[in-house]
Amino acid sequence: MSDQPTLAPATRSTPRSVLVSAWSVPIMVLGQFSMLAIVPVVLVLVGTIRRPSLRALRPYGVVLAAVYATPLVIWILRPDRAQSLSKDMHPAFMALIVAAAAALLVKLYTRKS
After folding, report:
1. Which residues contact 62 (CB under 8 A, 6 or more apart)?
2. Alpha-carbon distance 51 to 81, whole Å?
3. Which domain holds residue 59?
4. What is the DSSP string of 45-97?
5. CA distances, 47 to each of 6, 18, 56, 57, 90 (Å)
6. Which residue of 18, 47, 79, 105 has the fewest CB atoms within a 10 Å radius of its CB?
7. For residue 5, how many C-alpha atoms fall within 13 Å in the half-sphere facing its CB?
8. Phi, then psi, of 8 in degrees rounded to 5
9. pLDDT, tens digit, 9 for 90 and up, residues 20-74
10. Measured between alpha carbons, how far is 35 from 52 in angstroms, rounded to an integer?
11. Is 6 among the domain residues?
12. Any residues with CB less than 8 A from the CB of 61 and at least 6 apart, and which?
């Protein structure tokens, strides 16, 4: 037997809200619902900070929130902003948000119980 991590389903200690929110962030951002993605981003951040069992996911949750907050703040502060965050967001930010969510999901599924 090797000691390499294998993809396993999330354990019972993972709250369903964190699991579903982590999956919904990249889906919502890619589906052009970036403004609504604030809800799952906040749920992931709060869930990873409040649960001691998710301590290993805290840096990933913080990075996801920071990467998401950057285009949101730019959109809010721009005087000539578009009607939606998705239309105003640079594709590089979209790729960073999806990559941060993917890294969170990989860590979620490969962490030791």
Report:
1. 45, 48
2. 37
3. 16-110
4. HHHHHH-GGGGGGHHHHHHHHHHHHHHHHHHHH-TT--SSHHHHS-HHHHHHH
5. 24, 6, 12, 10, 28
6. 79
7. 11
8. -130, 155
9. 999 999 999 999 999 999 999 999 999 999 998 888 899 999 999 999 999 999 9
10. 29
11. no
12. 44, 45, 47, 48, 49, 54, 104
Task: Flag whether 10 is in a domain.
Answer: no
Alpha-carbon distances of 39 from 61, 63, 74, 111, rounded to whole Å: 13, 16, 18, 24
Total domains present in the chain = 1
How far is Cα 10 from Cα 91, in angstroms, rounded to an integer?
Answer: 30
Tell me how long the chain is. Answer: 113
pTM confidence score:
0.85
Name the token pair of 6.
Answer: 């294998």
